[in-house]
User: Fold this.
Amino acid sequence: MSETTQSMQNVGPTSGAKFRQRTLPILIFIAIILAIPMTDPSRTVYTLVHQMAINIVFALAYNMLLGKGGMLSFGHAVYFGLGGYYCLHVMNWIAEGAGIWANFPVFFLPVLGFLAGGLSAAVIGSFSTRRAGTTFAMISLGVAELIASGAFMFDSLFGGEQGISGDRMNGPQVFGLSMGPMSDIYWFMAFWTVISIIAMYAFTRTPLGRLSEATRDNPQRVQFIGYNPTRVRWLVFTASGAFAGLAGGMSAVNYEIFTPEALSLIPSGFVLIMAYVGGITYFVGPIMGAILLTYMSSMMSDFTEAWLLYLGLMFVIIVMYAPRGIAGIVFGVWDGLTGPDKGTYIGRLLVQIAGMVLMLIGLIVLVEMSIRWSNGYGEVFEPFGLHLGTTNVLTWILIIVPIGAGAALLRRVNREKEEAVA
Amino acid sequence: METIVFALLNGVIYGLLLFMLSSGLTLIFSMMGVLNFAHASFYMLGAYFAFTIMGATSFWIALFIAPVLVGLVGAVVERYGLRRVHANGHVAELLFTFGLAYLIEEIVKIIYGKTAVDYKIPDLLNFHAFTIYGASFPAYRMFMLFIAISMLIGLWFLLKKTRAGLIIQAALTHPHMVGHLGHNVPLIFMTVFGIGCALAGLAGVIAGNIFVTDPAMAVQMGPIVFVVVVVGGIGSLEGAFLASILIGLIQNFAVGINANFAEIFWFLGLSPTSEIGDITISSLAPVMPFLLLVLMLIFRPRGLMGEQEL
Assistant:
């Protein structure tokens, strides 16, 4: 409490720190975006990068709600989906040349997604944001379920089982992009991703962004200083829904199809996992989470059938042991490496990594063996020429020994840490 | 007439089943503030455990063993999982149970496969209990009714008439005071969590064979149970009971009504071939609970019996 006399000038970051923390990351991000097309990427890489771009915007929009606003939503895909659906309808109107839509460029469809997502969030939020916390979470789930199952009843709006599809190569061109080839879509994605990241970062610096953090931490005090927490939550919810709708618009242009599945609880759960695994307390967290999980979902499903199980495990472990997510781990390691007590930190870090790798090996053997046994095709897990069947003693040794040894190592490090603190 | 009688019976049975699920959830929620997202997963575990035990022994043994096993799993989850994330607040707890629901589903898929298992009604109960208006009513449903009512009486007795129930009720509202009086509050929490999960497991045992026992059953049931808790008023067992029966009746009556919007709102001039006019009440049945939730939130935010506004 001795720092209360600190003058206001010392509290704010220096201009150098501002540049390093705010401008530099964006510049690096833009540089990476500009560099990707130079490597002459294949179709697969483009598909992956486009999905990442959509997920980055969606996860950041979600984090406006969870990380900054403290509202845990289990149904945010509703606004993503409604924004996307609206964009697809407009895409079809553009193709038909209906009225004013004939002159609307497909490139700017995400703006309409933004408006549609924001409008639907404003309507639904008007009653769902009355309370925060657990109640809000339950309501979001119920509303999402209502809209997702209701969507199947209105075929002209949602297209029933097969959804609604469109064609993006219509309407006027902007920036010389025909929107046909993947490389054109790449610039579309890059443009909207960068714009949204900057806009959402800017949002955290506005009075409303600050108030949303205050409402998350202590709604009562916000009320004391003369603001209405319900109104703040509603506004943040609307903004978050709008950016989710923008991501939906990006997705509509990319895939040219939307099905009612996109509104359901599964994508809602996935965006929650992306944002949380990345780290909800950091602005960059959801970006990291979106990149990592999109990569995992497209690559790991080729390696193992049980990738959803691994994903679930990763999520639970992060909730239990690293609530600041991957961003928290990265910054923690960085702080440790640049901190005063480097030697002991590196030593402990290495032991921790060894412990985790050991546990992971045991776990992978267990899961892969079980999944082959459960499929019942007589397949056997054979890594590095080993034959690990359910009856093989070696299998069980490879499961129990690494998990036990890893757990023991992690336990020892934790005890050492506690003793060092005490 | 028989439609009404059958809808009434089925509605009450389904409602009691919902109450079996939501009573555990409400107890856990009002005591610990934890909304157990994985609650319906324990319902699923109950059905699968019963299927396994029934394969080895008989249904009657499964009826007793499976809920106990589910309760033990729940207690372990509380002791080694929830208690650890408790320090990070309620949202972290909710996220933990969300991840848990995910994990349980994937593990069930690995062990039992992705398709439904053949969990059957025991032969002893596979007959028609009675016949009214030419339609027969299966005995197993009467058995479900019997189990649900016994559970209701048992739970009421436990909470209102025993010393343990008194301590639990006290811990609901004043956990610190109960702790100061020398009771082991974490142990009470663990027990209540275990009992709540065991009730969900019991619901799974008796419902899994009449519905379908597949890895999706938790996802189907979960949101409806949440609706029950919100509609009933958060933290109120009586409210949860009313809401369960209400939702059970609404859904079962809706299924039996074939009228479409064009017939009901004929005075608006709705055409039966138009999209809205074509919607039948029976097709609305799965959406009904969620519709009720939204209406409730708009017009009576504290729920049927809730003490405080949501």
